[in-house]
Amino acid sequence: MTTAARAAEKQPKAPKKKLGKVALKEERTAYLFILLPCVGFLLFTIYPLLFSVAASATDWTGMNDMVFNGFQNYTQLFQDEKFWKSLANTLIYLIGIPIGMILGLLLAMGMNRKIVGVRVLRTMYYIPVISSLVAVSILWAWVYNYDYGLLNNILRMFFHVQGPAWLSSESWVKVAMIIFMVWGGLGNSIVLYLAGLQNIPRVYYEAAEIDGANAWQKFRHITLALISPVTFYILITSLIGGMQVFVQVQVMVSDGGTNYSAATVVFYEYQQAFESGAMGYSCAIAWILALIILVLTLVNFKLQKHWVNTMDE
Amino acid sequence: MKKVTRVTSLLLSAALVAGSMAGCGSSSSGAKTADGKANLNILVYMQDHEKKVYTKLINEFKKTHASEVGNINFQVTTQDEYNTKMTAAMTSKKLPDIFYVGPDSVRSYVDNGYVMPLDDLIAKNKDVKIDDLWPTIIKSYRYDGSKTGQGKLYALPKDLSTFAYAYNKDMFDKAGIAYPDPNKPYTYQEFLKVCQKLTKDTNGDGKTDQWGASFADSFMLNPFIYGNGAHYLTDDYSKVDIVGQKAFKDALQFYCDLTTKYKVTPTVQEDSAVGPYQRWLAGQVGFYGCGTWDVGAFMDKKTLPFNWNLCAWPVGDSGKTTTWLGTVGYAISSKCQSPDIALQLISYLSTNLNGQKEVSGATGEESIQLPNIMSYAKGDFKNAVKAGKVKYPSNVDVMFNYIGSENNYKGIFTETTYTYNSDWFNTFTDGLTDVKSGKKTVDQYITEIQPKMQKDLDKAIALQNKNKKSSSK
């Protein structure tokens, strides 16, 4: 630690001694006020979290007294076909993330220009983000309807082909979910990218032009490079969110799909807890999922120094 | 002035903290009012129109028992949320005094000591009469520590239901086919023939627009399986037993052939576009399963614009048309402090004649359920149906035959009732579309699915044993 840092650390301590009676009381009152969210956090976040760690090592059915059974739930998990299937489905759905990011960036670049009705467009793309996920899922279930759905009707009208049974076919259901998720996440990434794009000073582009850079080079070395923190943020948050997909499946394919082809890990977790009565087991699934998400996030943070540009450098 | 601010802020934050804590636990169950009257908490799931009737009944009970009853907290949730709420109640050890238990969960509730046996209470209480309730249903709430169906009684039925078959009369008229005889169920071949006559391309575009039947596998397959004398599990519910069981294979083959070979039902894709229920409402299919809970809606011309009546499910080699029964009952928490009053209340909801008239539609409203009281159901209620005074299809006997397993009818609880969960059965129906779309043969499918079902069943049995072990401590 440098001396400067040490000094900086000491500094706040010094005036504390000088605190008067009134200030001290004021400080105590302040603690009282921040107590509330702290208690809430401990009670409603930390406690359930620890509780589920404990429960994951028991044979709890949701009804019985918990009896410790060590890692039995976890070992059982590794031989559980449905768990692996739902995990594989979840990972397949992640394909939507890069697609969504590329589309989001392109649309954001389009909307960053002065074109007519740009505000209306921005609003339109943002609507899915603020809509209720349940309502939107019901809507898309109709879009994907085999006979009467919008999508198959378009395919029939313009291409004269019969579209697939989107939600009951084992492979198409994944395509359907990916399309839906890309659509749903687009608004968010557009807004973030727009903010990122507007932060890039125009002078960089002008300087590059003087140096004779073409459009691609400008995009590659200025735009892409300078919005990499935004890209990183979107990537991390959508990975975490993508691993926890639940509502869409629950609403659109409530039985998990033909041969469990649409089920996600969280969907399986929910079914185990509340339909199969395997609460302890469900907690174990939740923790394995948490672990996977943690590893994914850590890897991302490790890799970021290779491609994310921060102001420090 | 400063002091005032401080005190106020202290009070304020204390109130906030207290407020945030209050959400965690509500009043303890079975508490009494200051003057010693019993307070009761009830948690059930119901639809709005049911809730209306039952709220009325509870208010009446409160009035007639004003000297003993203080406050009745009647909480209604949705069926989806019920399990979640009950799990939370069990975890926090604050069960309501009265709640639903189905025949499929009697075992786990009793094993874990959550519910109270009712026999002694009933013996003490002269007003509570259960002799006249349907025996099959009462039996389903008995449990002796290892088997459901015998032993002590743990709940009084809220309702009883069965899943009969219904047919579209108008469609039969148009095709010039005689109505099905409720006393003589169709054989498989007869059923197929009728379905073939009903399956039509009505507008000549080369696509079928009207089908004989349409099936939702998870609840319409079983009448075929059980009606052919087949089963899924061995008698002790420990092994899946479908491979090598001819009756099972035949029934499943016929059921799938209706779609793949004879094409008298919509295809798998068409099913996924418009579900069987919607097709029935739209008058596109001749037959559809009709639960006792459906009757109210089906009697409404706005829901079903055509004429319809009840009939029996087609019957296989067993000779007995078979379908499944359902019920849910009121149980009393083992921690309840006023079990006598609680018993009187559930008995009022379960066996009160006026209440039963109201829920069965005898007072002119729609029918939510059949009357629990057998003598009334088969006597005055049936006569009122015949006289057209109750909104019910004239073949109401089909329902009664199934519930009482009378004549050549049989009503049973599905095997999932006796296993800890129904994962093994869901696994079976999940992949059945592969057969119905022609990707797999019946033989292939059952050989492939049986070990998977066994795995699920083994897990369920393990969970069930854990339930028992911890309670016997």
TrEMBL record, chain A:
Localization of this protein: Cell membrane
ABC transmembrane type-1 domain segment(s): 86-300
Gene3D superfamilies: MetI-like
PROSITE patterns: ABC_TM1
Domain of life according to the entry: Bacteria
Chief location bin: membrane
One Gene Ontology biological process: transmembrane transport
Membrane-protein topology: Multi-pass membrane protein
Key words of the record: Cell membrane, Membrane, Transmembrane, Transmembrane helix, Transport
Bilayer-crossing regions: 30-50, 91-111, 123-143, 175-195, 224-247, 278-301
PANTHER family with a match to the protein in the record: ABC TRANSPORTER PERMEASE PROTEIN, INNER MEMBRANE ABC TRANSPORTER PERMEASE PROTEIN YCJO
Name assigned to this protein: Sugar ABC transporter permease
Family to which the UniProt record says this protein belongs: Belongs to the binding-protein-dependent transport system permease family.
Gene Ontology CC annotations of this record: plasma membrane
From TrEMBL, chain B:
Keyword flag tRNA-binding: no
Organism lineage string: Bacteria, Bacillati, Bacillota, Clostridia, Eubacteriales
Organism: Caproicibacterium argilliputei
Residues passing through the membrane, by range: none
Taxonomic superkingdom: Bacteria
Protein name: Sugar ABC transporter substrate-binding protein
Similarity annotation: Belongs to the bacterial solute-binding protein 1 family.
Signal peptide extent: 1-22
Pfam families, alphabetized: SBP_bac_1
Cellular compartment(s): Cell envelope
Entries under CDD domains matching the protein: PBP2_TMBP_like
Gene3D superfamilies listed in its UniProt record: Periplasmic binding protein-like II
GO cellular component terms, semicolon-separated: cell envelope
Keywords: Signal, Transport
